[in-house]
Amino acid sequence: MTTEVEWARMTAPELRALAARPNALAVLPVGSLEQHGPHLPVITDTASASAAAIRAAHLVADEIPIAVLPGLWLGMSEHHLPFGGTVSLDYEAYHGILRSIVRSLKALGFKRLLIVNGHGGNIDPLAVAVRELAVTFSMPIVATTPWMMAHDEIAAIAESETPRHACEGETSVMMAIAGDIVRADKFDEAVQQAPKRTEAPHGFSRFYSFSERAPVTGTWGDPRPASREKGERFLAIQAAALAQGIRDERLWSAPDPVWQQERGQGTTSGRFG
Question: Residue 158 and residue 129: Cα distance in Å, rounded?
Fold first, then answer.
């Protein structure tokens, strides 16, 4: 019998018992609700993150108490607003939601949290939020973006540059997990871009909306080589990399309480106090 790993499919007593076990791990997939060109649904980032997280959880469920929360469908996606179909948070709201989730998990008894991210616009805000919340709640919190992991393995499968946005990679994954809502008849339309996208010079950073990066269709990349079989392979690679991280003790040490009174009079050798 397969061990249940999805939070939403468990009862409160089951989750209570799971949280009471040593090293209980909650997994939060995070994504967005945003345009993904004319061929993919707006839930793509959340759906792909959830699929990778659930598959990874099944790989470790016999050895680690784990529960995968429903995917957080709100992210920071203001750069996609010009194309419609997008609902976005600002950083204050995003941090507030994450803080409330961590606070709840701490109260329930979970010992650590893995955030599995499916949206590029969440990477920077997650990096800041995770380091602040880990110290605030004295809880190991780790964030990762599966498309940024196992790069060489993913590149060996892809025929075009991926990851991008609504590209071969994302399209393949959606074909694997929700093929009925992928519009393959729109693949040719998706790659029709003009004028050339705008990019900051190397070494500089600024805000660009996707109307400047993918001005016609909102697609960055080529979905035409996508297939369901590739999507299954991409997800298998991501799940294996996530499972490896879940098992890696270096990721799950207690956060240094840097804001503790007189912490600056302590040591830097790893002993706190």
Answer: 32
User: Where are any strands of DSSP class E within the chain?
Assistant: 25-30, 66-68, 112-117, 141-144
22 burial level (CB within 10 Å; 0-12, 13-18, 19+): exposed
Backbone angles phi, psi at 47, to 5 degrees: -65, -40
φ, ψ for residue 40 (rounded to 5)?
Answer: -120, 150
Residue found by looking up tokens 């660009």 in the block: 208
Tracing tokens 């093929």 back to the chain, one arrives at 179
> Who's near 260: CB < 8 A, 6+ residues apart?
272, 273
> How many Cα atoms sit within 13 Å of 162 on the Cβ side?
27
Helices 168-178 and 228-247, interaxial angle, to 10°?
90
* Percent of the chain's residues with pLDDT above 90: 88
Q: What is the pTM of this model?
A: 0.95
Q: Are 118 and 146 in contact (CB under 8 A)?
A: yes
pLDDT tens-digit series, residues 27-48: 999 999 999 999 999 999 999 9
**Distance (Å, rounded) from C-alpha 265 to C-alpha 267?**
7
